[in-house]
UniProtKB/TrEMBL annotation:
<dbReference type="GO" id="GO:0046513">
    <property type="term" value="P:ceramide biosynthetic process"/>
</dbReference>
<feature type="transmembrane region" description="Helical">
    <location>
        <begin position="216"/>
        <end position="234"/>
    </location>
</feature>
<feature type="region of interest" description="Disordered">
    <location>
        <begin position="1"/>
        <end position="32"/>
    </location>
</feature>
<dbReference type="InterPro" id="IPR013866">
    <property type="entry name" value="Sphingolipid_d4-desaturase_N"/>
</dbReference>
<dbReference type="GO" id="GO:0042284">
    <property type="term" value="F:sphingolipid delta-4 desaturase activity"/>
</dbReference>
<feature type="transmembrane region" description="Helical">
    <location>
        <begin position="71"/>
        <end position="90"/>
    </location>
</feature>
<dbReference type="Pfam" id="PF00487">
    <property type="entry name" value="FA_desaturase"/>
</dbReference>
<feature type="transmembrane region" description="Helical">
    <location>
        <begin position="97"/>
        <end position="120"/>
    </location>
</feature>
<feature type="domain" description="Sphingolipid delta4-desaturase N-terminal">
    <location>
        <begin position="37"/>
        <end position="76"/>
    </location>
</feature>
<keyword id="KW-0812">Transmembrane</keyword>
<feature type="transmembrane region" description="Helical">
    <location>
        <begin position="191"/>
        <end position="210"/>
    </location>
</feature>
<keyword id="KW-1133">Transmembrane helix</keyword>
<dbReference type="InterPro" id="IPR005804">
    <property type="entry name" value="FA_desaturase_dom"/>
</dbReference>
<protein>
    <submittedName>
        <fullName>Sphingolipid delta 4 desaturase</fullName>
    </submittedName>
</protein>
<feature type="compositionally biased region" description="Basic and acidic residues">
    <location>
        <begin position="1"/>
        <end position="10"/>
    </location>
</feature>
<feature type="transmembrane region" description="Helical">
    <location>
        <begin position="132"/>
        <end position="154"/>
    </location>
</feature>
<keyword id="KW-0472">Membrane</keyword>
Length: 358
């Protein structure tokens, strides 16, 4: 797809091209998002990840951030609490009308299920325990109420996402062309894509090379065994309606029925300012119920910092985050703009060509 010769054309406009080893790319304004101005085409850059550059600048200016803890044990408590709360709620709803199951799944189940995905994200980066074994064990536990054994696969592809951020097509977070062709140019198409994102992301992974890193492991086998056994015994305990609640909660946490929590996967890396900013944080209430998942620039800059300390990082290096970048304040707003703007498609991304060697 052609690239405009306007301000985002970093290949032809020398004023916007920045060194790959120093400095940060230009952005269009800073502060909360007041205007969404995406384009239905890629914004191509040649430089390395902004996150690597910004980490160096912040570390040099504020070396104390390198002393932030690298794990946070209380997250393990939240894993157990959320898994238990979902199972208990499923049991309580066993004799409830279907409309009530939908309401509780939308208002509570999806929030709890999404929170578990955030904790799986923490465990993926080994940010809960000092050793990888316990992080992997609790990742299996956190994935149980999602029913589908997807936690270990997520860990594999999420690590590729960090290593090859926005590389076409090596970063599994970058939509493949057929997604844009079939779903990206109408409200209905985008809504279908959004509602079934859990299926889309599973199919998308087929198109991505493994970079000599096979997703198969004994942890993957354990993931399947644990979820199959959990699903069988819990279904006996909570009944058909209880299982319906768990299934709906899991799907809604990823956007089913246009649940706004699913907009997180749009908010994080879709380009909405026609600048070279490739990652967007979201500040607001979502971080209260989502273990600070909105602090996404901060996380990509410092992947070894647990969620609880990310606001500290933002406060210390404010000029690099709230004072230096555009950011979201509402997933509802992101979803609305995504569905209603013609130019907001799956090509509204900052991308870079894949490395020749990895």
């Amino acid at each position: 797809m052609g690239i405009s010769n306007k301000k985002v054309d970093v290949q032809n406009d020398g004023a916007n091209k920045y060194p790959s080893k120093s400095g940060l790319p230009p952005t269009v304004g800073t502060g909360p998002m007041d205007k969404y101005d995406p384009k239905d085409e890629y914004i191509r850059v040649e430089a390395v990840q902004q996150h690597w550059l910004r980490r160096k600048l912040i570390s040099d200016k504020y070396p104390e951030v390198l002393n932030l803890p690298t794990y946070y044990l209380p997250s393990a408590f939240w894993v157990v609490a959320l898994v238990s709360s979902l199972v208990i709620t499923a049991k309580i709803l066993n004799n409830s009308p279907i409309w009530l199951i939908f309401v509780v799944a939308y208002l509570f189940g999806a929030v709890a299920s999404h929170a578990l995905w955030v904790l799986i994200h923490e465990l993926t980066h080994d940010l809960v325990f000092p050793g990888s074994f316990l992080n992997s064990t609790f990742l299996l536990i956190a994935n149980l109420p999602h029913l589908i054994p997807s936690g270990v696969s997520f860990r594999h592809f999420h690590r590729l996402h960090h290593s090859f951020l926005n590389e076409t097509y090596t970063d599994p977070d970058v939509p493949v062309p057929f997604e844009n062709k079939f779903f990206g140019h109408s409200i209905v198409g985008k809504a279908i894509w959004f509602c079934f994102y859990s299926i889309v992301i599973s199919l998308r992974s087929i198109f991505y090379p493994l970079k000599n890193q096979s997703p198969f492991s004994m942890w993957l086998v354990a993931n399947y065994i644990c979820n199959i056994v959990f699903t069988y015994y819990v279904s006996q305990y909570v009944g058909v309606k209880g299982m319906t609640f768990l299934v709906l909660s899991s799907l809604m946490s990823l956007g089913f029925l246009l649940h706004p929590l699913g907009a997180r996967w749009i908010a994080e890396h879709f380009a909405v300012t026609q600048s070279e900013q490739e990652t967007y944080s979201t500040y607001g209430f979502i971080n209260t119920i989502g273990f600070n998942i909105g602090y996404h620039n901060e996380h990509h800059d410092f992947t070894r910092v647990p969620y609880i300390y990310l606001p500290t990082l933002t406060k210390v290096a404010n000029e690099f985050y709230k004072g230096g970048l555009k950011y979201h304040t509402s997933y509802w707003r992101v979803l609305y703009e995504f569905l209603n703007q013609d130019g907001f498609t799956f090509n509204s991304r900052v991308v870079r060509n894949p490395k020749l060697k990895n």
